[in-house]
Q: What sequence folds into this?
């Protein structure tokens, strides 16, 4: 990526720049590749990046919660000095949403990503089925196809934890990749996923997200350990998010709080739509809008009783349903 050269003011002479950026070739649509302290880096087609601010009108919208985030497709006007103004945010195809702390407003972390890669560790920190289901529902509800990564399969006892997860989530239709940074397992398969389009690696702290990215691309040098890339949010540092360009061609969202994504704003009545294994059965319940919790002749509960739906998945559904209100 190269930065846009400021256009020398004497190249055209004063007066040639009529209207706001109308004569400049850079006006157009781009992707927000970095957000930092109210400044936006926008990558235009052709790979040129410009520094942009947002129009006052959009700023007001921002205050009401609809921020401009990494991955947003925006229309920018470029002024003679090469700086830009974001005029419009184009409709999003997907959204990665983080639950607001303490029930506050949700926060959109990234837009238009191609997939969510849920990362858990087979051991240390231990994985629970509910954690996996939560990550997948975040992806499903944001319109993102999901892949599950089970890292640290080198640790003692890890294969016994990983095997049933591989079977369960594979059967539901998710791609599951077992990895170990330590033992160099599964990294090629993960690269295959991450090297096209744009991804968010989402999962709790300590599962190895930074380590996996560093292993794929040593040049990244993301910090590994307790203070790592997604929690860089000290009181004195500016919150910054970016889309990391991988050398292999993919992009990965690097944004604070990616470990705390939770389920938010999902209507209780639509929750079953975000569980692919429940989704198709829900139509067969006796009652329309069946919650699958207590109604009679519920096709979902019937399938759980017959062992066709995993009990852990059903428990996660019930827990999230309870949470959704
Ligand atoms: P993040 O918080 O998800 O970004 O996790 P980090 O990448 O910071 O890793 C947390 C800890 O787990 C570090 O001490 C890593 O060295 C360790 N770790 C990461 N991947 C593996 C792995 O595959 N196997 C083992 N045994 N440890 C790992
Ligand atoms: Zn039902």
A:
């Amino acid at each position: 990526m190269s930065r846009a050269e400021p256009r020398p003011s004497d190249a055209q002479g004063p007066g040639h720049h009529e209207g706001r950026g109308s004569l400049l070739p850079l006006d157009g649509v781009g992707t927000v590749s970095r957000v930092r302290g109210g400044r936006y880096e926008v990558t235009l087609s052709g790979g040129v990046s410009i520094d942009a601010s947002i129009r006052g009108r959009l700023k007001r919208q921002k205050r009401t919660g609809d921020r401009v985030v990494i991955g947003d497709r925006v229309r920018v006007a470029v002024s003679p000095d090469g700086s830009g103004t974001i005029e419009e945010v184009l409709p999003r195809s997907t959204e990665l949403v983080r639950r607001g702390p303490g029930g506050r407003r949700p926060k959109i972390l990234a837009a238009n990503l191609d997939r969510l890669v849920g990362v858990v560790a087979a051991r240390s920190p231990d994985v629970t089925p509910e954690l996996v289901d939560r990550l997948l529902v975040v992806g499903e509800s944001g319109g993102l196809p999901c892949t599950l990564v089970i890292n640290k399969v080198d640790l003692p006892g890890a294969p016994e934890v990983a095997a049933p997860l591989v079977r369960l989530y594979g059967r539901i239709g998710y791609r599951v990749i077992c990895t170990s940074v330590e033992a160099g397992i599964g990294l090629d398969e993960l690269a295959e996923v991450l090297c096209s389009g744009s991804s968010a690696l989402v999962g709790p702290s300590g599962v190895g997200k930074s380590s996996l990215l560093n292993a794929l691309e040593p040049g990244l040098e993301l910090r590994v350990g307790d203070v790592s890339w997604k929690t860089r949010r000290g009181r004195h540092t500016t919150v910054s998010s970016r889309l990391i360009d991988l050398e292999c061609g993919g992009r990965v969202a690097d944004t604070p709080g990616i470990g705390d994504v939770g389920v938010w704003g999902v209507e209780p009545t639509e929750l079953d739509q975000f569980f692919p294994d429940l989704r198709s059965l829900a139509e067969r319940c006796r009652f329309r809008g069946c919650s699958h919790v207590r109604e009679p002749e519920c096709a979902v509960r019937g399938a759980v009783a017959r062992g066709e739906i995993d009990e852990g998945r059903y428990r996660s559904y019930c827990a999230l349903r309870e949470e959704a209100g």
Summary: The two ends are 46 Å apart (CA to CA). The pocket of zinc ion (ligand 2) is lined by residues 285, 290, 292, 295, 298-300 (CB under 6 Å). The CA atoms of residues 123 and 196 lie 29 Å apart. The first helix runs from residue 9 to 12.
